[in-house]
Amino acid sequence: SSDSCSTVPLRVVLTDAGAVMPRRATAGSVGYDLATCEDRTVEAFDTAIIRTGLRVMLPPGTYGRIASRSSWANRGLNVQGGVVDPDYTGELRVILHNTSDEKVHLSCATSVAQLILERCVTPPVEVGRAREGQLPGVWHRQPEPVAVRETGGMGSTNM
Fold first, then answer.
1. Could you tell me the pTM of the whole model?
2. DSSP label at 6?
3. What is the residue-level pLDDT of the chain in tens, covering all 159 positions?
4. How many Cα atoms within 13 Å fall on the side-chain side of residue 93?
5. What's the CA gap between 19 and 17, in Å, rounded?
6. CATH for 4-124, options being 1.10.357.140, 1.20.1050.10, 2.70.40.10, 3.40.50.1980
């Protein structure tokens, strides 16, 4: 069924005393609100990495996208980056950039972003060389990645 993903739970581990369970604000909300687990200030025109004190186990066939909340975006606080790979097991952290000329203070338990689960496919990649403007007649399958993810995030898989 098209709704089968909703029967597999999003599993959340609270790793910090200040962590807040992600929740959808309404029955129709797509995103799960993510809150900071500590008091934090984002200076004017600066970027900060905000801790959530959460780890997640995403349902099979999904990845997480960390997105801005419109209430904060309207005040100049925007999420940067934000892909949570299915095999990521570290703490969820939110990269926030303040585009305003005023610093923003975030109290512990303030919702700062939203986690949106999206379906994904990761088929094998095949490559071929174009010759004289023609599509390739021969395709070569690229090897699948064999690296096993550690708990690191924020660019930790750049090889």
1. 0.82
2. G
3. 445 456 899 999 999 999 999 999 999 999 999 999 999 999 999 999 999 999 999 999 999 999 999 999 999 999 998 999 999 999 999 999 999 999 999 999 999 999 999 999 999 998 988 888 888 888 888 888 776 656 666 555 555
4. 14
5. 6
6. 2.70.40.10
